[in-house]
Fold:
Amino acid sequence: DTLNELFASGLVTICGDLLTLAFITTVMFQLSPMLTVVMLLVMPGVVAVTGRFRRAVTQSFRSIRVAIARINSYLQEHMTGIVVLHLFNRESRSREEFHRINKVHMDAYKDTITAYGWFYPAVEFLSYLSLAAVLAVGGFRVEGGGLTLGVLVAFVQYSTRFFRPIQDLSEKYNILQSAMASAERVFGLLDTRAEIAGPREPRAMPEASARIEFDHVWFAYKDDEWVLRDVSFAIEPGETIAVVGHTGAGKTTIISLLLRFYDVARGAIRIGGVDIREFDPTALRSHFGVVLQDPYLFTGTIEDNIRMGTERIGREDAEEAAEQVNLGAFLRELPEGIGHAVQERGSSLSTGQKQLIGFARALAHDPHFLILDEATSSVDTETELRIREALSRIVEGRTSIVIAHRLSTIQRADRILVMHKGRLRESGTHQELLSERGVYWKLYQLQYKDQERA
Structure:
């Protein structure tokens, strides 16, 4: 909005004032070069005052933009979580926090108002000082016959108008500085280099599902705080692998590295024998279908959220994918069917319905590799059974990686990888891992101890 205001009105006025200033200066030099020089003697003072004003206002506007960003972020976060605030009686505390953040914004504006408070009078004082000097020198010259009274009167009129564009430019400096502060943030984002860059000559992705290999992979989000430590395993084409472990064991990090949201610190990840860093990141991710724990739904229709703008996926393809993940019965209950409107983030849908839409989204894109990240950890038992029934059809013919806390969802996996404190501690089938009585056995006991006693 600030940049729009600058281009819509600010630049037009600034250009007009600059042209007016140049025209008046030219005319005054033609009327009396001496008086023009006398009048311009105050310009070093104007430049000095403007420079000090510019430094003060620039810093103030930067502080204002940062404060506004914090206010917007705070309001968005707390309006989204307003139910939680009511449940835990945090209204008063949130109000105090908002007043504290808003005070920073108010103080920054006070600094700006203070700067304008002394800048305008200073420029006004210098303009009257210049006018007094012109009248004094011009009066002596008129008395001595070196200048006519008419020229002096005309010069005084022009000198009065000379400072009006300067004052107008000072007023527009508010818009200019606000726009510059906004532009700094915009161009700062635009100039940010992507941490993950594709190779100059990327390799072609395999045409079909290929072998995935983690070769002595190390990774840390922060220096030396290793999340993954020397992790090595392989997934054969068409194999369904489950990854389990305590929270913070590194399960989701494995997926982030495989999709190349981050690059490994040591070791390598290969698909079809080729390091994934040799593939274009966009091409790499297009071969994966991902269902997250909390599927993000955009404002639009259910069809839009399944197709995600992919032209090759038609309405019939989206409906077929919905049927395969047991979403068809729900869609038939809706008057608009798959054209049912979805509100922001899918707030009108249940968690289970959103996850089924996430399944349909992944399936409709017909990926070679399927990733289910905590995909059934937050749904009710009935929905979980429906999802489990659909999974057997979805994973058929695809290399699949399932990450879940509920061990009941992954017992039929071809192989289970057990992560513990960033390391791959165990690998095998459900029965093999139970017989070893290791980390997986302990996880199983924690989840099913009460059920077995019953």
Observations:
- The domain at 2-190 is CATH 1.20.1560.10 (ABC transporter transmembrane region fold).
- Residues 91-144 form the longest helix (54 residues).
